[in-house]
Amino acid sequence: MEAPPSGYYEIFGIEKKLALDVEGLQRRFYERSREWHPDRHARASAEQREFAEQATATLNDAWRVLRDPVARAEYFLTAAGVKTDAKKTPPDLLEEVFELNMALEEARDGDTGAKSQVAAALVRFTAMLESLDADRGALFLRIDLGDAAAIPALRALLDKRKYLQNLVRDARATME
Amino acid sequence: MSLFQIDFGGQKEHKVIGIDLGTTNSLAAFMDLTGPTVIPDPQGEVIVPSVVSIPEKGEPIVGHAAVERLITHPERTIFSVKRLMGRGVGDVQDELKLFPFHIAPDSDTVIHLELGGKKFTPPAVSALVLRQLKQNAKDFFGEPIEHAVITVPAYFNDAQRQATKDAGRIAGIQVMRLVNEPTAAALAYGLDKRQNGVVAVYDLGGGTFDISILKLHDGIFEVLATNGDTHLGGDDIDNLLMRIALEDIASEWGVDLSSDAGAVQRVRRAVIEAKHALSTAMAAVIEVHHDGKSYRRELPRELFEKLIAPVIDRTLTPCRDCMKDAGVTPDEIDEVVLVGGSTRIPLVRQAVRNLFKAEPHTELNPDEVVALGAAVQAGILSGHVPDKLLLDVTPLSLGIETMGGIVSKLIHRNSTIPASAAETFTTAVDGQSNVLIHVVQGEREMVRDCRSLARFDLKGIDPLPAGMAKIQVKFLIDANGILNVSAKDLRTGKEQTIEVKPSYGLTDEQVEAIVLESFEKAEEDFSERQLREVRVEADRILNAVDKAKGDDAYMDLSDEERAGVDQAIAELILAYHGSDHNLIHNKMDGLNQATLKLAELMMNTAVQGLMKGTKIDA
Ligand SMILES: Nc1ncnc2c1ncn2[C@@H]1O[C@H](COP(=O)(O)OP(=O)(O)O)[C@@H](O)[C@H]1O
Ligand SMILES: [Mg+2]
Question: Residue B445: is its pLDDT beyond 50?
Fold first, then answer.
C-alpha cells in the first residue's frame, strides 16, 4: 500500500491555490475524516491501520493550517522556498516605531501625555493590521493567477503583519 | 474492505466492551442493537469500587469486598490509585500524606506501593480492577472478553495515558482505544439528542476534573477544546471535611487520630456519608464511633457550601480557558452535560448554571454515562455505529528542549488527533554518532516548568562533519493521545534507531515482566490463545479460498493472478506453522489482497444471476 501524500494540498486533493473556500474545505475535511479516521479501520490489517493513522494525521495538520489564511500563506511561501525576514523593521514604519518607543519610555516614567500618545499609536497600528488583512485577499488572487511579482509582496505583507503584531503585543504588555 | 473478506472470514468478530476506570468507581458497558447497556456482576451490581486489597494469603480482593477492608486492613488496601498513575513520587506528596500504604524508596519515575513485602506499581493495581471487570463481562456473556475501550480524564498527559494502557495489557486486555471521559459522555448523550450544536461537558469525579467543548455535526463529535485539573475532585472535599473532623476530635477527645490508619478511614467514611446526604438534605451529621468514644457534628448545607466553595471555584478557570480556546462564548453553548458523582452537589450545579447560562443535563446517571459512552465508541470501532465519529484533541502542547532550556512547541494543545510534526536534527561536532532529544508536555516557555515526557536517543548516525547529518524526526500523537516517534536519515532514507527513555512510567520490558508474573497464571497463555484463535481464522479463510478455486471465476483470472494466489496461500501456511500470531494475521491479509479480484468476479457473477432472476420474475 502506498503511503498517503504528505503535502497539505495533496492530502485534501485540491489545487495549490491561496484563495480557498474554507467552508468547502471543511466539508471535505469531514468527508475524508469519515473515510480515513483510525476509528473506521480498527479491525483492518496493520498496514491499513498505519495508512489510516498517517493519512488522518496529515489531514488534521493540513486542516489546521489551510483553514487559517495567514498560516496557509506561510505554508504556501515556505513550500515555494520564499524566506522570511520578520525581525527587520519594515522601512515605511521606521519613523512611527521610533516615536512609539520614545513614547513608551516616557510612559514608563509616568508621563501621562506619553501614555495617551501610546494609546493613539496602538489604535493606528491595529487599524494598519486590519488593512493588511484586507489587502491579503487581492494578493492571493494575483498569485493564484500566476502573477509572480505578487509573491514578494505577500512575503513583505506577512512580515509586516508579524512585526506589527509583536509590536502591539509588547506595547500592551508594557502599558499594563 | 472487500466483500470477499467479509464472506470468508478475514477478521473474526470479537466483542469490544467499554470501561470507565475511575478514581473511585469503575464499570463496564457494551453496545447492542438497543444501544449501550451496563454490565452487571453475577450479583447484579454494576459498580466495582476501584479498591484493591492484598491479603496475607490468597488472591487479591477487589471492589465492594475490598472497601470493607479499608477500615480493617488499611495498610493493605489501596484506593484512588488512579491519582498515582503515570506519576513519580515527587508529584504526589500531597496524596501520600493521606494514603495509609507505604511507598518503596525507588519510586522516582514509577511509584512502587509496598504491601506486605510485595511491590505493586499503579498500573498493576489498576489491572486488578480491570481484571474484575473482565471477569464480570465473561460471566455476563458466557465467553471471554479480551478487547476494550478504556476511558481516561481528558486532561491526562502522555505518561498517565500510557500507564492506563499498560494496566490494560497487564490485565490481558487489548486496549482498542483510550477515550477521553467527557467525550465519551457526550457520545452517550448524543445518541438521541440534537444533530448539530455546541455542547459543554463538565466532569467532576472523585479525583479529576475535566471540561470539554464539542461541536456536533451530523454524527461527527468534534472536540473544539479541553481543559481540566487531574488533581481536583470529590476527594478534595472529603479531605477538607476530614481535617475539620480530625481537629474537632483531637480537641474533644484529646487524641490525634491521624496516625491511626483504620480510624482515619472511619472518619473518611463518615464525612463522605455526610457529604452525600447534603446533596439532597439541608443538613447532615458527621458521626464517628471509635474505641468506645463518639463524635457527632451537625453540618448544615449552608456551612458546607461555604467550606467547599473554593474547591468548586477551582473548576471555573479551566472552564473559561476552555471556552476561550474553543472560540465560543457562554451564549453559543447550546447544551451542558454533567458527569461524575460530584456533580450531584447542588452548589456545583449552581456554579455550572451561572457560568454557562444554561440548565445542565442530568438525565443519564452520572455514574454510568462515561462507561456507556465508551461502549458507543467500542461500537464505532467494531463498525456497528457507522454514522458516528469522534474527533478528539490533545490536551497539552508537545515540545522539545532547545538551547537554554527553552521549549520549542511542535504540536499545540487542542490540536485534533492524530496530529503530527516533523523536525530535522543535525550534529554539532564532527563525527558525532548520536543526538539526544528531550520531549516535554505543557504550556510554559521553559523546560523546567513543563512535564518531561521522554528522552529519545537517535543512535548510530554515520560519522560526518558537524552539521552534515540530517535526521528527520516525526512526532505523531495517535488517536489515544499517546506520542509515537520515528526517525529517518534523510541522506540515506533509512529508518533511524531510537532508544526511548520515558521520564515517568514503565518501559515496555517492565510491563512485559509484570504481565509474565501476574496473578492468574492462566492468563499467561494469552498469546497462546491468540495464536489458537488466529489459526482458526486462517483455517476458515484457507478453506474458503480452496472452495473458491473450484468456481468458474477462478479460471477467469490470469496465470499471474493465480500464481499470486498460490504464493499467498503458501506464505500463509508457512506462517501458520510458526508461532507468531501477528505474522499469521499479516499473511491472511496478504491472501485477502491476492484474492480481491477473485472475490469481485464471484460477486459479479452472483449479482448478474440475481438481476437475471428479477427480470424473469417481472
Ligand atoms: N450524592 C453525592 N453527593 C456528593 N458527592 C457524591 C455523591 N455521590 C457520589 N459523590 C462523589 O463523587 C465522587 C465519585 O464520582 P465518580 O464519578 O464515580 O468518580 P471517578 O470517576 O473519579 O471514579 C466521589 O468523590 C463521591 O464522594
Ligand atoms: Mg469518572
Answer: yes
* Residue to substitute in B20, B24, B38, B80 for testing ligand 1 pocket (most ligand atoms within 8 angstroms of CB): B24
Q: Is the predicted pLDDT of residue B225 greater than 80, yes or no?
A: yes
Q: B594 in contact with A at a CB cutoff of 8 Å? A: no
Q: Which atom of ligand 1 is nearest to the CA of B366?
A: 17
Contact A64 B415 (CB under 8 A): yes
Please determine, looking at this structure, whether the domain spanning B511-617 carries the CATH number 1.20.1270.10: yes
B530 neighbors B581 (Cβ within 8 angstroms)? yes
Burial (CB count within 10 angstroms: exposed 0-12, middle 13-18, buried 19+), residue B114 = middle
Give me the phi and psi of B481, to 5 degrees please.
80, 20
Domain B398-506: what homologous superfamily?
A: Substrate Binding Domain Of DNAk; Chain A, domain 1 (2.60.34.10)
- The answer, for B583 touching chain A at a CB cutoff of 8 Å, is no
Mean pLDDT to the nearest integer, B408-431: 92
Nearest to A11 by CA among A56, A69, A76: A56
Whether the CB-CB separation of B192 and B363 falls below 8 Å is answered with no
CATH topology of domain B234-307: Actin; Chain A, domain 4 (3.90.640)
Give the gap in angstroms from C-alpha B379 to the nearest C-alpha of chain A.
10
- What is A8-67's CATH superfamily? DnaJ domain (1.10.287.110)
First and final C-alpha spacing in chain A? 57
Lowest mean pLDDT, pick from B4-18, B76-90, B133-147, B223-237: B4-18
Ligand 1 atom at shortest distance from the alpha carbon of B181: 21
Domain layout of chain A by residue ranges: 8-67, 91-175
What pLDDT is attached to residue B499?
A: 80
Of A40, A46, A53, nearest to B478 by CB-CB distance is: A53
Contact B590, B572 (CB under 8 A): yes
Spell out which residues of chain A touch residue B592, defining contact as CB-CB under 8 Å.
45
Please name the residue of chain A whose CA is at the shortest distance from the CA of residue B474.
A54
Q: What ipTM goes with this model? A: 0.89
User: Is the model more confident about B230 or about B1?
Assistant: B230
CA distance B13 to chain A (A): 9
Measured in Å, residue B155 CA sits from the centre of ligand 2 at: 12
Span B184-221, pLDDT tens digits: 999 998 755 567 889 999 999 998 899 999 999 889 99
CATH code at B16-233+308-391: 3.30.420.40
Domain boundaries, chain B: 16-233+308-391, 234-307, 398-506, 511-617
pLDDT higher than 70, residue B608: no
Closest CA of chain A from B14, distance in Å: 10
Task: Return the percent helix, strand and coil in chain A, to nearest 5.
Answer: 75, 0, 25
Which residues of B are designated catalytic?
A: 20, 82, 181, 203
B376 pLDDT more than 60: yes
The pLDDT of residue A63 is: 97
How far apart are the C-alpha atoms of B123 and B173, rounded to whole Å? 13
Contact B285, B296 (CB under 8 A): yes
